[in-house]
Amino acid sequence: MIPEFCVFYGVLTFSWIEFLWEQYLTLRQRRVYKTTDKIPERLTGVLDVETFIKAKSYGIDKNSFSIAEEWFHMIISTGFICLNGFTLLWNFSKYCLIETRYYDSEIMTSCVFLLCMNTLGTLMSLPISAYSTFIIEEKHGFNKQTLNFFVKDKIKNFLLVQVISLPITAAAITIVKWGGRYFFIWLWVFAVVTSLFIMTIYPEFIAPLFDKYTPLPDGVLKTKIEELAKQVKFPLYKIYIVEGSKRSAHSNAYFYGFFNNKRIVLYDTLLKDSKDIMNNKTIIDENAQGDKIEEKGKGMNDEEILAVLGHELGHWKLNHILFYLIISQVNLFVMLFVFGWLYDHSMLYRAFGFYESAHPVIIGLAIIFQYVFSPYNTVISFAMTTLSRQLEFQADAFAKKLGYAKPLESGLIRLHNDNLGFPVYDSLFSAWHHTHPQLLERLEAISKTD
Is there a binding annotation on residue 392? Predict the structure, then answer.
């Protein structure tokens, strides 16, 4: 009984320590929002007072919402642990199958269990997501969704999650039962293959279910992007514009694909005169130098877009993507190895009120990955955040070597202003949460001579 007691209260204590630490950091950043009244000297002339005030208001509103959201999740999580939520849901899942021939099937019971978990998670997240979208994002001019669009989006997302997760769960349970003592090796191979498969099909078949992807029309911008890709020997296949403006006014750019079939995706909100570009009209950009950002309108000029893409291609050229992939798969192997060692320990199940003699795989996965690994996950997350910040500096330096120092600076500032990013952050909050360095840090690093 003592070991179960220690595990239960150990998990509960750590979850509250981590939660209170997060709250402390959030309050530190809140103080920064409240007390910062002057535009940083480095941004004088490129960040107007009106945008600064709007960014401050947006930051405070998101900060307040974050505090409330974290308290909500923490109370729900604590209640779930204390009320033996896993046991209650597992018994309910078995009850749902009591009149069927699948009553004794662990795989079918696990699928019902996962469906219940996903349904509860979706229902609890709906009011939070709706408030964030239609209150906070709407207030600050970012939300472009209608209620109908929002509901359809949530339904499609929920159905897609079930279509993907339920077969994967059934396969994982089968592998654990079939794999013997070293099942974790086979489970890891399955996880790697599955993740790579999903990464391959997601952009082509899944993402278009939610947003419209259109090939970038022929023109000056497309030619410049193709020349940039050729310069760094990036095997560019296609360039797309994603119609993200129906969802949000926030902007972004990224690339995806394996081997020689790589695509670049630009959000339409990233582009100046995106409607004209989509309609294949000729655009004359009088600010092509990339070192001016006085225009009030949102979006980047061609040189700034190329600078941002130079940064993204830097991640590819410097093998950051491959590095992340290797780290994630090694980490997954370590976690599955430990899971294989702990999976059949009755003490872990009893600690969370699960006293059945049989140990369902999905319950073991939930307990070990969600709770037992919690301290490990926190350490790994911070380490990866720290690493990510360093790799971002390297990608900026790569874009600078391509000759895009000035347009990269102006592009980052423009992107920051368009998204109402606040220019000042508490150092501890930023180090813990931000995978990208602060704007001022990036500008300072770019401006340094080689």
Answer: yes
